[in-house]
Design goal:
Helix content is about 30%, strand content about 40%. The chain has about 100 residues and is of the alpha+beta class.
Length: about 100
């Protein structure tokens, strides 16, 4: 099984690159529904409009859920995407996703 931080890092890279194929395999059905709803709420482009960077913060665990914040920043502005990951048959999958703050 891949490490959670590695899976979250690949997910963030796919998100920034808008790699739909990579993102599709990263979600559970529940996570996919939340991601589609979140997409309509997200402002387009990187925060601040510059070249984005992403910090992966594994923040803990609640039951079977592993909590990971993806902090996307550019030009002094940042957005945090909160994710909940589950180990599904040896693969890490995003089961919940939401914009923080």
């Amino acid at each position: 099984m891949a490490e959670l931080k590695d899976a979250a890092d690949q997910f963030a890279k796919d998100l920034l690159a808008q790699n739909i194929a990579g993102l599709m395999v990263a979600f559970t059905p529940n996570g996919m529904m939340q991601a589609m709803a979140l997409q309509s709420q997200m402002p387009s482009g990187a925060p601040g409009g510059g070249t984005p960077s992403v910090a992966i913060n594994v923040t803990g665990q609640e039951g079977d859920d592993h909590l990971v914040d993806l902090v996307m920043s550019a030009d002094g502005e940042a957005r945090t995407i909160a994710t909940r990951w589950k180990d599904i048959a040896g693969s890490w999958k995003v089961d919940s996703i939401a914009l923080k703050g």
